[in-house]
Design a protein that fits this description.
By secondary structure, the protein is mainly alpha-helical. Helices cover 73% and strands 0% of the residues.
């Protein structure tokens, strides 16, 4: 893989547009939470993962790191927990995607459980199949998916917002210094603060592929 492909895998693991509607409700306060989240969680996680990946440049990622520190049993537990969170996470994300896509085709499908299960199983097996050839293929898939499914749509959203403001329509977000700082007395602020950790989770996963990257 190239460094660019590794970067795209990082983006695929961390970045997502599904939370934009929720974040919009918080206005500028959402930016505050994401800046703090990046400073106290995302960047430290990235630096630690980079250090561990270069200190123990072996395949295995979290398993190798925990094994070297605490032994093979704890290493197995760490990688099992990482695997198990994917078992729970991916069906949830895919069901969201299936329901969203149903509204494009036929809104009635959104209530069809057979349709949702079929989409989840089909995508999971397809993802498994395309990863058999190795990281070279999955790296390209991640790159195309991120550009077409995350970066491209995000750029369009920003462009449409700029056009909206350029033609004289009012901003739907209150722009002021006071609005940037959240009201910590409200539960909604605490919920968003916690959810930013979820949005930033996964930065350490790609470090396991350091050996498969040209000039990592």
């Amino acid at each position: 893989m190239t460094v660019f492909q590794l970067a795209m895998i990082n983006v695929a693991m961390v970045a997502s547009l599904q939370g934009l509607a929720t974040m919009a409700e918080y206005g500028l306060a959402a930016i505050f939470f994401f800046v703090v989240g990046a400073a106290v969680f995302l960047l430290p996680t990235a630096f630690v993962a980079a250090e561990l990946a270069t200190g123990w440049p072996k395949r295995g990622g979290v398993f190798i790191w925990v094994k070297e520190a605490l032994g093979p049993r704890w290493g197995f537990l760490a990688v099992w927990l990482q695997w198990f969170q994917n078992v729970v996470w991916y069906p949830a994300v895919l069901s969201f995607a299936a329901v969203t896509f149903a509204f494009v085709i036929n809104p009635e499908l959104a209530e069809n459980k057979v349709y949702a299960v079929a989409v989840i199983l089909a995508v999971c097996w397809a993802a498994t199949a395309v990863n058999f050839p190795g990281m070279r293929v999955s790296g390209w898939i991640s790159t195309v998916g991120v550009i077409g499914g995350t970066l491209g749509p995000a750029a369009l959203i920003v462009l449409f917002a700029l056009i909206w403001l350029a033609v004289g329509d009012p901003s739907q977000i209150h722009l002021s210094e006071k609005a940037f700082f959240p009201d910590f007395g409200k539960m909604s602020g605490i919920v968003l603060a916690a959810s930013t950790r979820v949005y930033f989770a996964g930065m350490e996963v790609s470090a396991a592929h350091a050996q498969e990257v040209k000039d990592p």
